[in-house]
Structure formats: structure tokens, C-alpha cells
């Protein structure tokens, strides 16, 4: 009976300090993507004419949305989604036309997160989510605004990722807070497929992430 009473009292104390919040984060990510870089290099080496690479999967911007539930004052559970894109471009352009080799990879991630709050402003935690990547490879030749050659390839891959992170969040007003967060994404995605044909190329979004965060608390029970 005493243990049951303790559980009830714990539940009441947790519920008495519960709150829901929604946040949006925008930041910069490094991306490993060695297979996609090698794919671009292979296409450049097999190009019909010498071309120059101007971008080959450099650091990119990511956007994250999260809905979180703070239990008591120390434990935060939530769901999140992330979208980001990265790409490569090689080619040759002048007043007469262009020869371009392009790749564009798009990532969508959806999952759960847990954070432990230290003090009032610091937190660290882990995100685990499902990753889906679509990569478009295109080659085209254009002469005097007329396309004389174009081919494309669509590759798809899925898997999951783990993102340990640390952050700082400071309330500005009663329901609004600003923060900064840093972490590292570990991507466990499978190889790309072209239709049902499996390749030996992985998307590999693994890399460091840093972002600015705006959070809004829309329900609070004290």
C-alpha cells in the first residue's frame, strides 16, 4: 500500500510540472558522403569533354521541427523531423551553351528524442530516427538554349540514424526561448537502390551539426 501511494504521489508531482513545447531549428551540417563524392568524380572522369567541379557535397543547411513533452523539470521526450539537401555540380558553361553533371540528394528523417535537462538551461540527449534519402543524378548538354542531350537516374535508400547532442536554451519571455545546439549524426542507411537493383553506394549523412533554435511553450501546468 505504501509503494502504491508513493507511485501516486510521484505521478502527481510529475503531472504538476508538465509542459508541451514546439521548436524549429536551422543550422549547418557537415556530410561525409564519400560514396556520392566518388560517384561525381567517376562521372567527371568519364565526361565527353573536360569539365570543372564547383561543388561536391559540401556542408549544407538543415531544418528541424520538434514537439516535446517536459516531464517534471529534468526529462524531456519528443518527436522530431529533419529535412536537408546536399548536392554536386560539375560542368562547363559559356555563351554558346553548357555541359552539366549534377547530383541532388534529399534527406527526410523522422523519429524520437530524449533529453536530460541540467539546471535550467543546459540539456543533452539522443535522437533516433528513420532516414529516407533520394538522390537525383542528371547529365545534360545545351547548345544555344536548346537541350540536345539529357539523361537522369533516381536512387533511393533508407535506414536509421542516431544523433547525440548537447544544447543551451534560454527563456526570453514567458513562453518563448532561444537556444543553440551541437551534435553528431551517425547514419546507418542502407545502400542506394535504382528501382529494385541494389548498388554499393551509401548516402552517409554522418557529420557534425550545429543549429540555432526557437522554442514555444504552448501548454504548461505548474
State the major sheet. Answer: 8 strands, antiparallel, barrel
The coarse silhouette is elongated
CATH domain topology:
Porin
What gap, in angstroms, lies between the N and C termini?
27 Å
Mean pLDDT: 89
Number of strands: 11
Count of individual domains? 1
User: Can you tell me the CATH architecture?
Assistant: Beta Barrel
Task: Write out the strand line-up for the largest beta sheet, numbering strands in chain order.
Answer: 1-3-4-5-6-7-8-11
- The helix tally amounts to 2
**What proportion of the residues is helical, as a percent range?**
10-25%
The helix-and-strand class reads: mainly beta
β-strand amount: over 45%
Low-confidence segments, given as residue ranges, are: 7-16
What's the CATH class, please? Mainly Beta
What's the oligomerization state?
Answer: single chain
Radius of gyration: 23 Å
The secondary-structure element order is HEHEEEEEEEEEE
Quick structural gist:
This protein is mostly beta strands.
Index terms:
mainly beta, Porin, 222 residues, two-stranded antiparallel sheet, 2 helices
Structure commentary:
This protein is mainly β and 222 residues long. The chain has a single domain, classed as Porin (Beta Barrel). It is 12% helix and 68% strand. The protein is built from two helices and eleven strands; from the N terminus they run αβαββββββββββ. The strands form two sheets. It has an eight-stranded antiparallel beta barrel with strand order 1-3-4-5-6-7-8-11. β5 and β6 form a beta hairpin. The longest helix has 14 residues, at 2-15.
